[in-house]
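Troubleshooting: if your tokenizer reports a length mismatch, compare your output against this known-good record of 135 residues.
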Amino acid sequence: MALKLKKTIFDLVAEANAEIEAISAEQAVGLREDPDVVLVDLRDVRELARDGRVPGAFHAPRGMLEFWVDPASPYYKDIFGSGKRFVFFCAGGLRSALATQQVQRMGLEPVCHIEGGFKAWKEAGGPVEMPEKKA
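Known-good structure output:
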């Protein structure tokens, strides 16, 4: 018997998108040099190694994000207290929608996410750097 969920991941993402701001990859590429904006890459280290990364983006693995945002957490990262605008992204925009919703609910602002994620970033001509190959 198949598992019958009350909500699917697509339901959760739709609910998140109704509460948060989503920007296009083209808009995000335009914000890349803005000193008041932090691009936050939520992908895991294997994705970064395989697909590359956005130069200058702050890496915050999705599983640690809420802990890194909360000043009461022993894992808090000062960057989240900077008062800057945070633009979250993942591979395709699903994890980043959920993450943006959560940190917005926590009180972090201003926040948004890139619709279509890293894939859309690359398609919009955003710069990507590949990790150096280990010898």
